[in-house]
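yo, Acetoacetyl-CoA synthetase is done. seq:
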Amino acid sequence: MDTPFGEDQPLWTPSEAAIREANISQYTHWLTQEHGLHFEDREALWRWSIERLEDFWASLWSYFDIKASHPYSAVLTDHTMPGAHWFPDARLNYAEHIFRNATSDRPAILFQSERQPLTEISWQELTDQVGALAHSLRTLGVQPGDRVVAYIPNIPQAIVAFLACASIGATWSSCSPDFGISSVTERFQQIEPTVLFAVDGYQYGGKTFDRLPVIKELQEALPTLKKIVVVPYLHADASTEGIHNGVLWSELLREPAELRFEQVPFDHPLWVLYSSGTTGLPKAIVQGQGGILLEHLKSLILDVDLKPGDRFFWFTTTGWMMWNLLVGGLLAQAVVLIYDGSPGYPNMETLWKFAQESQMSFFGTSAGYITSCMKAGVEPGQNYDLSRLRGIGSTGSPLPPEGFHWIHEHVREDLWVASVSGGTDVCSAFVSGSIILPVYAGELQCRSLGANVQAFNEAGQPVIDEMGELVITAPMPSMPLFFWNDPEQQRYRESYFATYPGIWRHGDWIRITERGSAVIYGRSDSTINRMGIRMGSSEIYRIVEGLPEVLDSLIVGVERPHGGYYLPLFVVLRPGIELDDTLKARIKSELRTHVSPHHVPDEILTIPEVPRTLSGKKLEVPVKKLLMGIPLEKAVSLDALSNPQSFQYFLEFEQQRK
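structure:
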């Protein structure tokens, strides 16, 4: 039984002016003028983009005027996954496309933190700093292909350091300073970096955290490091005392230098991202300069509809792929807005106040943040001037219909809401928003151009209006080049291609509607499968967390010996609320009525907090493994959690059950 998430009537419909002025409308007009192609709607354009894959990506190369010192000899030489080879022989540089439209009198970045008021960094300042830093890195011996890592929050220095590395052709990788020492070392040790950028400390939720002791531990754990660059952030007078081969950030910016761009192959490694690492060593995912360049131009200009001068924000840390996508906003000549600190400090209105002060155009966040604002009773539309805001983006987990309605009722009625879903694996979205399409509450508007997204049933066949496995049946340029230290691609193949050889299985449940929109139901590897009836966990969360007493929840389905099945529901309640028989009965009644009688939990229990990854995702699979009797050390890597103490409850719970 599949429970529909969406609604019959659109919540929002674009105006004729919005459709006419949309970037994607300009692109389709260009396709008509230049290639004689005509498309009746966005769905027809998507079909052309997947059926004529090479023509589509070649058109983007021309439309976005990709600057290459050497032309490509073909668009795609092999459709095999993994192994697709895009734009061979082309030589280019990602950072060059960031700076090719730099205008000295315009802001490039607006920055605010818990410790610092709104600050502007102009394009001229950004160009000067990146040029000086790149020159210093070259002087230190950094060459194309060398790995440069950063233990740094979402601050301007992170963007400067990344762009300097990209201009050289060095490979970037970053972790947020809230990562513990084990989480950082198990990521960075894999790629053997030569330079580390690190802050002396940071502030979050009004509390300060010293990181100089961690830097010294990192130096011991990363023997390939030749230089450590200390970025004073917590203390202006931070020093490199006790750090071997340490240098202060300011010293690397002293000597002005012209910004130069190393020309590298299309598939030259741009950065290394990491999987969550909750159940093993994080996968070190390598993505290329050219693939990311094309994918982010497509995603941010044609999907997010960024225009020059727009003020683009996504709340993120440097340990989440959304930071990398956010920096890509500079490709669209947008002003990138970055915020460092807790979104809930001193209260849940902080980011809405930031939106007003920065004159934000697009507000990117997570479904969890929207839900928290709902629970906190925040009234952004009443309390702040959000007249410049055109759209709100949501990712990280499915945004329930109630979240869509809350935005329209409490932020602004005429806002475009773009719920999107993709992954670190491609640093982009598979299913996205489009400003030329209506918005249906609970639905993602469309499949991304060039992404052949299908829902596969149990027989491995594509289906419409049925929940199935989210698969990608054709390559995308930003798919991983490889995993680091995976020379035979064994781990790469096991991660995506073990179920359907040659077809990417992403691990989400999805339903594609007749109108081409989609609904995401949660991770397929944590599916609730009771009496042979599959159910995505997001459907259950929508109902449970819609109750005013419930702040958060977690549900797992545990297979038992001899065909048994155990379905516990764990809830985080509002302060002062008790889980009595009346509330339990209400929760069960709501689930029986709105989801399915087969998915009413066996038990409902209260927990202090839901275990989450460092990027905020619920950890259903590790809890399931623990309740199946798998030892804690094999079920989860606690260092990969934002709240490792949360597992203590489940450990004690399982011991008591035994």
